[in-house]
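wait is this the right file?? whatever heres the structure
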């Protein structure tokens, strides 16, 4: 299913090279697009950074057929980054993911995109099932690893460009019991936007 690109008031034209491209992978079962968390995040970034911004949703199922869904998300995210990077060598990328989408972003960064990270300015993960305790970029009250821990230092290449937000007892990024904690990430949008503004200059 094709996903129409979202356009916000301060966003760059689709047919040009933006200063910044925000790519977002939504959470499981969310409708095509950026989803309930990444949409307001993209809007804040577009509003608050002085550069031109283009926002693009990762086109993938975000389904409970988890392994296949994540694989499709990685392929789409990788293709989008590589295509824009080839046409727009000055564009900086902000990779964002929520829940299953955070897994997609992490898998892409450590896999297919591992040799294409020069233009990646920021990586923002929320409620990541692959959350690993003790990483320098972890933010929030979560202190345990998630249901599919990625392992220490797997994101070392982008550690200084990454923030991974995880709440205590989150069902997925902590292997906890609370779905409410997994839905409570809007409170970090300001921090994520500020971090992005610093990273894109």
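ok assuming it is, sequence goes like this
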């Amino acid at each position: 299913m094709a996903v129409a690109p979202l356009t916000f008031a301060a966003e760059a034209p689709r047919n040009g090279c933006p200063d910044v491209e925000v790519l977002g992978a939504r959470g499981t079962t969310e409708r095509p697009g950026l989803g309930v968390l990444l949409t307001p995040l993209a809007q804040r970034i577009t509003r608050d950074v002085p550069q031109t911004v283009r926002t693009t949703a990762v086109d993938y199922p975000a389904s409970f057929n988890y392994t296949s869904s994540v694989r499709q998300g990685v392929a789409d995210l990788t293709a989008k980054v590589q295509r824009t990077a080839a046409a727009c060598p000055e564009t900086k990328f902000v990779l964002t993911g929520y829940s299953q989408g955070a897994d997609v972003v992490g898998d892409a960064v450590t896999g297919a995109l591992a040799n294409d990270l020069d233009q990646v300015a920021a990586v923002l993960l929320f409620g990541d099932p692959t959350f690993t305790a003790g990483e320098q970029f972890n933010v929030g009250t979560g202190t345990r690893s998630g249901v599919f821990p990625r392992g220490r230092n797997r994101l070392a290449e982008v550690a200084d460009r990454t923030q991974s937000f995880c709440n205590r007892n989150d069902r997925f990024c902590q292997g906890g019991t609370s779905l409410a904690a997994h839905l409570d990430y809007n409170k970090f949008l300001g921090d994520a936007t500020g971090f992005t503004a610093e990273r894109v200059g």
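The chain has a mean pLDDT of 94. so i think its the right one actually
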